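Re: [ENG-882] Designed sequences occasionally contain unexpected residues at chain ends

Forwarding the minimal case from QA. Structure tokens:
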């Protein structure tokens, strides 16, 4: 079986090759897309990588503060209420973080939850697992200890047994790199384990740039098409996930979690732009010549601190049917 991560990697490799044949500038953009800026949409972000392929920790670190600012804190109160009423809550929480990357989700969430926590970090990249372990938070919101263990493997094949004992399942920038079948399997696994799921930063296919440019919509459309390559869901993932978890009887809440990027984020905007345009050119090579000019104009405005970008995402909280007296 070819996994979603393997298909994403193949798509990124195609992006580099297609743009390289179309022109040097677009080739540089696509190179950023492969394992760096394409992480914006989950490809190479906090998602598992196949054997032998590592995603750049530098990109994950570059995006971490924007991710942290974007995640929907409004979903935390209903999550805390559910966690507080879990059977066996006194023994602490067990949190499975899928496609953990450098562990940014744990660094954001663990200090916002009370009580002892054991985080189980899932990824296929051993280097990222080591980095996530070294940088893991040590204390919860109330000072209780936070510990971590790691599991290396394919998160596309998780079952309820794999999540047995989980108090919570989390992921960041993951859903859009999965297929419909994999999202449905994830919903089944979470429901079978009775575990809530907090799945953040799924792209929704909308980017707002200011000042506007005539090519913005064309680049965005080509990028979204690239994200859907190989049966991956890309910007359709959040809708499919809502349906899949609801079908398992979960109460589903969705909240916007946009990146709000300005002159404070010029390094992030530059890398994101290169990947965004590079993937668009890979999908539609005929854009390359005009996209080269577009990218130069956009990078110039960004360097001057004049470019603002809103990259729209959504966060999803799925609360399964209560069991064992939970409310």
């Amino acid at each position: 079986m070819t996994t979603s991560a393997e298909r994403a990697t193949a798509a990124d490799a195609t992006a580099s090759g297609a743009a390289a044949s179309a022109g040097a500038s677009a080739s540089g953009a696509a190179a950023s897309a492969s394992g760096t800026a394409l992480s914006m949409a989950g490809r190479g972000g906090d998602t598992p990588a196949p054997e032998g392929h590592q995603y750049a920790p530098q990109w994950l670190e570059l995006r971490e503060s924007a991710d942290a600012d974007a995640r929907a804190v409004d979903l935390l109160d209903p999550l805390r209420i559910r966690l507080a009423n879990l059977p066996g809550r006194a023994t602490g929480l067990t949190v499975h973080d899928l496609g953990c990357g450098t562990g940014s989700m744990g660094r954001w969430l663990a200090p916002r939850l009370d009580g002892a926590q054991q985080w189980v970090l899932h990824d296929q990249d051993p280097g990222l697992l080591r980095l996530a372990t070294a940088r893991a938070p040590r204390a919860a919101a109330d000072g209780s200890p936070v510990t971590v263990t790691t599991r290396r493997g394919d998160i596309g094949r998780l079952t309820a047994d794999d999540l047995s004992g989980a108090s919570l399942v989390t992921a960041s920038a993951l859903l859009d790199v999965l297929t419909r079948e994999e999202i449905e399997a994830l919903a089944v696994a979470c429901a079978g384990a009775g575990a809530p799921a907090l799945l953040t930063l799924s792209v929704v296919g909308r980017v707002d740039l200011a000042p506007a440019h005539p090519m913005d919509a064309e680049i965005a459309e080509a990028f979204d098409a690239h994200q859907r390559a190989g049966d991956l869901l890309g910007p359709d993932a959040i809708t499919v996930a809502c349906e899949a978890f609801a079908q398992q009887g979960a109460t589903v809440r969705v909240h916007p979690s946009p990146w709000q990027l300005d002159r404070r984020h010029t390094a992030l905007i530059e890398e994101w732009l290169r990947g965004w345009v590079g993937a668009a050119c890979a999908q539609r090579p005929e854009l390359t010549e005009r996209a080269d000019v577009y990218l130069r104009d956009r990078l110039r405005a960004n360097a001057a601190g004049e470019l603002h970008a809103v990259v729209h995402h959504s966060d999803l909280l799925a609360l399964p049917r209560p069991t064992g007296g939970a409310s």
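QA comment: On inspection the terminal residues look reasonable. The chain is about 40% helix and 20% strand. Proposing we downgrade this to a documentation issue.
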